[in-house]
Design brief:
The chain is built from eight helices and eight strands, in the order βαβαβαβαββαβαβαα. It is α/β, with parallel strands linked by helices. An eight-stranded parallel beta sheet has the order 1-8-7-6-5-4-3-2. The protein starts with a strand and ends with a helix. The structure holds D-xylitol-5-phosphate and zinc ion.
């Protein structure tokens, strides 16, 4: 199972509903980047925008909370129509935050920054429904993919499989047709892409192209394994 999650961060904020509608036929999830100007040096969107978008889209809303105090906002995002909320391991209080998200009926995600080692997330793999390995420093779209994260993705995949855990493994940052094969080979199965999709003339076509590149890498990997 492979999912494409366009990030609305790179969409036209003045025409969000239209932008989401255009990409929807080729999107599995919608990735919503929430930034508080504190955990990251940028401010984006909050529950009111999620609530408004909810009226226009039935997609799974995958909300990525790049905020210092996510516990103060999980309920508001749930009430606004979020399906999943991902908190960063760097903000601490991880077990309680994941439990709070699950108690609210949200899919509970745990994100890890590029420079944070795998060991930081290891104790929480069985408490999360999704692990998000950041492949750029969070805060802005359009940055270059950080290849050094690949071993952490592979290690996370190996540990999830070894423990028989079914958490999703997501990557976010600098993902495009060129970088997708490597993350898929490392074990990622949810691909977030902002600029590669919404920066294209036809976002749905770009999402389709990204999926094709990812699926080809997956099949290639399966072929190698069978040899
Ligand atoms: C970055 C955000 C990403 C961002 C990715 O802090 O978490 O979701 O939208 O954008 P691209 O795909 O352009 O790197
Ligand atoms: Zn994100």
């Amino acid at each position: 199972m492979l999912r494409i999650a366009p990030s609305v961060l790179s969409a036209d904020f003045g025409n969000l509903a239209e932008a989401v509608g255009e990409v929807a036929p080729e999107a599995d999830w919608l990735h919503v980047d929430v930034m508080d100007g504190h955990f990251v040096p940028n401010i984006t969107i909050g529950p009111p925008v999620v609530r408004s978008l909810r009226k226009h889209s039935g997609l799974f809303f995958d909300c990525h909370l790049m905020v210092t105090d996510p516990g103060d906002y999980l309920e508001a995002f749930r009430d606004a129509g979020a399906d999943g909320c991902t908190v960063h391991v760097e903000v601490g209080n991880t077990a309680a935050l994941l439990a709070q998200a699950r108690d609210l009926g949200l899919q509970a995600g745990l994100a890890v920054n590029p420079e944070t080692p795998y060991e930081a997330i290891d104790p929480f793999l069985d408490q999360a429904d999704l692990i998000l390995c950041m492949t750029v420093h969070p805060g802005f779209g359009g940055q270059a993919f950080i290849e050094d994260v690949l071993p952490k993705i592979a290690r996370t995949r190996a540990e999830l499989d070894r423990r028989g855990l079914s958490a999703e493994l997501e990557v976010d940052g600098g993902i495009d047709e060129r970088t997708a094969p490597a993350v898929v080979r490392a074990g990622a199965r949810v691909l977030v892409a902002g600029s590669a999709i919404f920066g294209a003339e036809r976002s749905w076509e770009a999402a389709r192209g990204l999926r094709a590149a990812a699926v080809a890498a997956l099949q290639d990997g399966a072929g190698q394994a069978a040899k």
